[in-house]
Amino acid sequence: MKIRTILADDHEIFRQGLSSLLDVEPDIELVAQAANGQYAWELVETLKPDIAILDIGMPELSGIEIARKVEETGMNTRVVLLTMHDDPCTAADAQQAGASGYVLKDNSFEELLI
Predict the structure, then answer these.
(1) Tens of pLDDT along the chain (114 residues)?
(2) How many CA atoms lie less than 13 Å away from 100 in the CB half-sphere?
(3) Quick one: DSSP state of residue 58?
(4) Positive or negative, the Cα torsion across 105, 5, 96, 10?
């Protein structure tokens, strides 16, 4: 059974590149993409993916805000946050919001998959 995943990032070229990498993974099904936080949240609510890979800093809702909403509603979706910010405070905020993962954008694709 494939891992149903959504991807949200407001930087289109980054999102396109990451979606291309996810598309060739045999165990992952990329079911939707979003360019802003509000649409990402709507996708999470509607599609109830196994994993939501979300940029921390998006317009309308941040990845951290979405992680909080997922936690508050008791959804089974696991949130993995992507960021350029190598900052312990932001990582702590992500953890408190209920994120399952925190991955720097300069990490390798393989590190995201772990």
Answers:
(1) 899 999 999 999 999 999 999 999 999 999 999 999 999 999 999 999 999 999 999 999 999 999 999 999 999 999 999 988 788 888 889 899 999 988 888 877 777 766
(2) 16
(3) -
(4) positive
Beta carbons of 37 and 59 less than 8 angstroms apart:
yes
Claim: this prediction has a pTM higher than 0.90? yes
CB within 8 A of 18, min separation 6: which ones? 7, 9, 53, 109
- What are φ and ψ of residue 12, in 5° steps? -60, -45
Reduced 3-state DSSP string for the chain: CCEEEEEECCCHHHHHHHHHHHHCCCCEEEEEEECCHHHHHHHHHHHCCCEEEEECCCCCCCHHHHHHHHHHHCCCCEEEEEECCCCHHHHHHHHHHCCCEEEECCCCHHHHHC
Q: Which two tokens stand for residue 35?
A: 């360019």
